[in-house]
Amino acid sequence: MTIFRKILISINKYITNIKKFSRNVRLLLLSAMLAYMAFGIFSVNFNLYIISLGITPDSLGNILSAAPFAAMLASIPLGFVGEKLGYRKVFLFIYLVSGIGLLVQVITANVTIITIAAFVTGLASSGNFVIRLPFLSSNIEDADRTFVFSMDAFIGGIMIAIGALMAGYLPNLFQLVTPDISMAYRYTLLFSGSLTLLALIPVYLIVDNQHTLKGKISLSPYLWGVDKFLVKSALIEGFLGFTHGLIVPFINLFFIFYLNTTREYYSWVEAIAFIPIITATLVGPLLALKFGNIKTIIISRFLIPVVLISFIISVSPLIGTGSYLGYRAIFSMSQSLWFAFAMAVATPKSKAALSAWLQITFQIGIVLAAQITGSSLNQGNYALPFILAASGAVVSAFLTWFMIYPYKKLAQPSTYLKKVAGDL
User: Fold this and answer.
1) Which of 28, 157, 276, 403 could disulfide-link to 232, CB 3.0 to 4.6 Å?
2) CA–CA distance, 424 with 411 (Å, rounded to integer)
3) What is the pTM of this model?
4) Residue 233 belongs to what domain range?
5) How far, in whole angstroms, is CA 395 from its chain's centroid?
6) What CATH number should be reported for the domain holding residue 355?
7) How many helices, marked H, and strands, marked E, lie in the chain?
8) b/e for 103-140, b at 16 or more Cβ within 10 A?
């Protein structure tokens, strides 16, 4: 049986099993479709909008640091709120404030206001990760955890691709209204923020079946009561955030100003990225079932430096495109498997705390990385971020190997994946 046929069979099984999702999961995924599309549009154009205003890359680094810094501060408090009030109310808050924050970021050219708006957006959007994992875990069977997390990534990849493709050409459309490219970017980004607000509708229809806490919420699972697995996982996630933050928030600038491509070319790169991302996301659980979840995660993390270095040593758009797509595929597959593994190992009381700390340390890594890349690009140094990112990936791979591998017996493969593997 060819690899292509195996992938088609996997896709068919994924689609068939979506019908088994609970109504809450389907509504959240529908909301995510709108939010991911908005993110695809925003991520392609925001940096270009900032640069078109005459704002320097180091100031852009400060702006891009604001949201992850806010996420770092808000992750644990939002975890508390989710446990106390229910996940539905928190999701409503997330999409409302995020949408408004995105709109405010693009209605002004004032760096201070943009940075503050980015910070507020980060405060809200940080809850999307912290609440999302325990929400999905509480609305699915344990045996389907890996499958649902992979499907979440699957949908995200497609909708970000659609948004990215639109983002390459929407400014051209808006230039029919105004010849000012900065205004064209602004109109495009306002449309993106509006999509985020539309994501409120499916979330509003969610029925919160979570048992909210009646008394005081204990800090113990988040602070002095954290277990060794949480500490080790959070440390590793920090290095992953550092690796990711050095490259991905600025990747459109690397393509356009280092590889000398156009915005339209870059939007197509982001659009076709869903192909390797989806393929890796679909195949990832099967590899995890055959070779072991944690082994697959470790190997994938050792592959990340290879694709990062290949990007920067070439000035060819085609090689750079292949390297970037390889990174996106490997990273997405690794993270979806990693989150499923972490949720399987975590105790019921520590799931929300683990999710919060993974978010916090990942964002700490991004905050530090954005400052470094912004300063580096301001000096015209495009190589340093990639060298540091590759180093961070190597460290995360070794730490996963030595710290997390002993926990492999605590995470059992899903029943669904056993059936798929048997058919393949």
Assistant:
1) 403
2) 22
3) 0.80
4) 22-206+221-423
5) 20
6) 1.20.1250.20
7) 17, 0
8) bbbbeeeebeebbbbbbbbbbbbbbbbbbbbbbbbbbb
